[in-house]
Design brief:
Number of helices: 8
Keywords: Membrane, Transmembrane, Transmembrane helix
Organism: Durusdinium trenchii
Shape: globular
Protein name: Alpha-1,3-glucosyltransferase
Transmembrane segments: 50-69, 76-94, 114-134
Largest sheet: none
């Protein structure tokens, strides 16, 4: 129900709100409600897949209706990355550390779910807002380096295919 109600509500709000500054807050409210729903209600599978679809629809909406202060937040996240990356890394924790980070299935505990979706929200905001900060405020890869970065496709595929095995080995070693 949430997957249908939030997008429809956002479209209706966009239609009725005339001020573009007010419309810019629709994406924030949508994201807050989306994440709050996941924190307050542990949805078993296929809940996580539905959530990814919700985020995809949300990102399509904010492409056309940017978030309020998107460029300023993107600039702050890009320039002060160490101030948010370290606390987020500490929230994720070390493999085998207690309490374990709920990687795939939603935890029955509200605080673990809040920790998980807070980290997810930080990464979502980083991916969405940093590009709007502009090239002058972000790290730009030079054109000459483009052809040499083709190996990243294979490296990311190898990381995706082997990450579960690496997690199992590291968790076993830390116990």
């Amino acid at each position: 129900m949430e997957s249908m109600l939030l997008p429809c509500s956002a479209v209706v709000a966009h239609f009725f709100l005339r001020d573009s500054e007010t419309k810019a807050w629709i994406g924030w409210v949508w994201l807050a409600l989306l994440q709050a729903g996941r924190i307050l209600n542990a949805e078993p599978r296929p809940g996580s897949e539905i959530h990814l679809l919700d985020l995809y629809i949300w990102s399509g909406f904010i492409y056309f209706v940017p978030l309020a202060y998107q460029a300023k937040i993107g600039k702050a996240i890009a320039q002060l990355w160490l101030l948010w990356a370290v606390p987020v890394a500490l929230l994720v924790g070390l493999p085998g550390a207690e309490p374990p980070f709920p990687a795939q299935y939603p935890s029955p505990e509200v605080m673990k779910r809040a920790r998980f979706y807070f980290v997810e929200s930080v990464f979502i905001l980083a991916f969405v807002t940093i590009p709007s900060a502009g090239k002058q405020h972000t790290l730009v890869i030079p054109q000459s380096a483009g052809p040499t970065l083709d190996c990243l496709n294979y490296l990311s595929l190898a990381a995706f295919c082997s990450h579960k095995a690496i997690i199992d080995v590291v968790q076993h070693t830390w116990r």
